[in-house]
Specification:
4-stranded parallel β-sheet, about 350 residues, 13 strands, Rossmann fold, binds 6-O-phosphono-beta-D-fructofuranose, 7-stranded mixed β-sheet, elongated, single chain, alpha/beta
Length: about 350
């Protein structure tokens, strides 16, 4: 078989581990040829390919980013995008496509499958917000990076008796905020799922100062103050209609200073959370996803996505991958809330 593979959407530590596993098992065990499409869905639309060989995936297991490049291209928003994509697949005699991505990339994969394109999906996002899998790779790395940042910020916050607000990624789901906040012992954790009261945040901040410790507040970029709206970095939307979030950390630090009279600073972790080498957990999960994805292709089990359920890798329908987002349940947030202040 000739198998195409692409990585779409925001990059994520572990993508190269998937590519390596797909290529190694695809070539050595199944005798497939593996063709990489560059820059997400732009690759099959504009005929940007690169062969993936045993040599080209040598030494990439621990490398962050993706050797194929990525983009947020939506072929359904490009003029004759799907027609061009199908023609390119035909020209390269592609028998199957593996799409590695989050809800947007997999949403396109699902639509293409409905139009007869043989696709298998692999879930990826540092946000861990895909409901059909227990975990996505990249999340563990992002949580480690954010936790290390909290540990470092704590010592400087305490030296200067300041409140430090740490803004982490998480557009609709607060998993990175919740896990890094718990792991780093944050005094307040704010997630997009629960609108927050600035007054209550300030009470917790003051309580913490009373105990002679400086508070750390972890806030997801998509968190919203009660009665307010998400704070945007710019008004632009990408090809999937997403706005660019960012700014809640600085806004909240200013509010805390104004209301409590305590000095506050904000740190926006941004893309640092997506960069660099994946943790061992992410390398293992990404590798297992890759090994199972190439098996699904070989079995002709198209329209499916590999997913983690407990400790097993299973196949689920692609439509389940995008049906609903996995957000932080109220009771999980309540579990953490007892430690605030
Ligand atoms: O991949 C998802 C995500 O990490 C979101 O949390 C964030 O809003 C977005 O990516 C930002 O990505 P970019 O700046 O690459 O568009």
């Amino acid at each position: 078989m000739r198998v195409g593979v692409l990585t779409g959407g925001g990059d994520c530590p572990g993508l190269n581990a998937v590519l390596r596993a797909v290529t190694r098992k695809g070539i050595s065990v199944h005798q497939h040829e593996i063709i990489g499409f560059r820059n997400g869905w732009l690759g099959p639309v504009e005929d940007l390919t690169t062969p993936l060989t045993l040599d080209s995936v040598e030494d990439i297991l621990n490398r962050g980013g993706t050797i194929l490049g990525s983009s947020r291209t939506n072929p359904y928003k490009v003029e004759d995008g799907v027609g061009r994509l199908k023609a390119v697949l035909q020209r390269h005699r592609i028998d199957a496509l593996i799409a590695i991505g989050g809800e947007d990339t997999l949403g396109v994969a699902e639509q293409l499958f409905a139009e007869g394109v043989p696709v298998v999906g692999v879930p990826k996002t540092i946000d861990n917000d895909l409901d059909a899998t227990d975990y996505t790779f990249g999340f563990d790395t992002a949580v480690h990076i954010a936790t290390e940042a909290i540990d470092r910020l704590r010592t400087t916050a305490e030296s200067h008796h300041r409140a430090l607000v740490v803004e982490v990624m998480g557009r609709h789901a607060g998993w990175i905020a919740l896990h890094s906040g718990l792991a780093g012992g944050a005094n307040v954790i704010l997630v997009p799922e629960q609108p927050f009261s600035v007054e209550k945040v300030c009470d917790w901040v003051e309580r913490r100062f009373q105990r002679q410790y400086a508070p750390i507040i972890v806030v997801a970029e998509g968190a919203v103050p009660e009665g307010g709206e998400a704070i945007l970095a710019t008004g632009e939307r990408d090809a999937f209609g997403h706005v660019r979030l960012g700014g809640v950390g600085n806004w909240l630090a200013d509010e805390i200073s104004r209301r409590t009279g305590k000095e506050s600073r904000a740190v926006v972790l941004g893309h640092v959370q997506r960069g660099g080498t994946p943790t061992a957990y992410d390398r293992v999960l990404a590798t297992r996803f890759g090994l199972h994805a190439i098996d699904a292709v070989t079995d002709g089990d198209f329209g499916t996505m590999v997913a983690l359920r407990g400790t097993e890798i299973v196949r689920v329908p692609l439509r389940d991958a995008t049906a609903s987002l996995k957000t932080v349940p109220v009771e999980r947030y309540a579990e953490a809330e007892v430690l605030f202040g």
